[in-house]
Amino acid sequence: MDANTENSIRQEQIESFGRLMAGFAHDMKNHLGIIRESNGLMGDILEMGVLGGDAKMLERLKKSIDAIERRVVISANMMHHLSGLAHRPDHPFSSFLINDVIKEEYVFLERFSRLKQINIVMELQEMLPAVYNDPSLLQHVVYRIYSQCLELLESGQSLSIVTEVEGNRAVLVFRFPFGVSVTDGETLLHTTLLSAVEKMEGTLTIKDKNKDGMEIRLGIPSLSVDSTS
């Protein structure tokens, strides 16, 4: 099997997986909508006093209804972002806002930092221009860098995720606190990750800012439509 055929199969596999996730997210949003409506109906019945009964029991029911509502809202938000995440592979190249991609993916990345008790600080610059590139591949690269950043940090430390513009590139920065040393560049910037960045025609560098700590900088250019066709 030649490399082009293998790459085509891999791309179709990713697209199929994305569409399966998108279908799942759509169905789950419908289920959550029904749960929310039913929960709201129970709240209305309690407010009308139809059930009567013990005041303490009614108060407990109201608290349960409020808790269900909060969880439904959180779950619906996650399904919304999962749907967006799943649809990214539909078009290998498209125009997108890097902040949207980061917010979308962070909904699912947040769990890993929470388990390790790492504080994530988002500093997303507003009004960044859209870039034309591969959003699905960018999400893969972000996940790999994010995971390795967490391995370098101890419980209680912070990681800043910053977006900015540098020339004609959008730049995503992973900034470490002072005292964290990013010395193992060969492991952090391994061949597979660098190949993915190269496919986006991007850049990936480690920068030492002395007392301001170290940072990993991912540059994402806006490609021309002709170069990706």
TrEMBL record:
Domain of life assignment: Bacteria
This protein's name: Histidine kinase
Organism: Desulfocapsa sulfexigens (strain DSM 10523 / SB164P1)
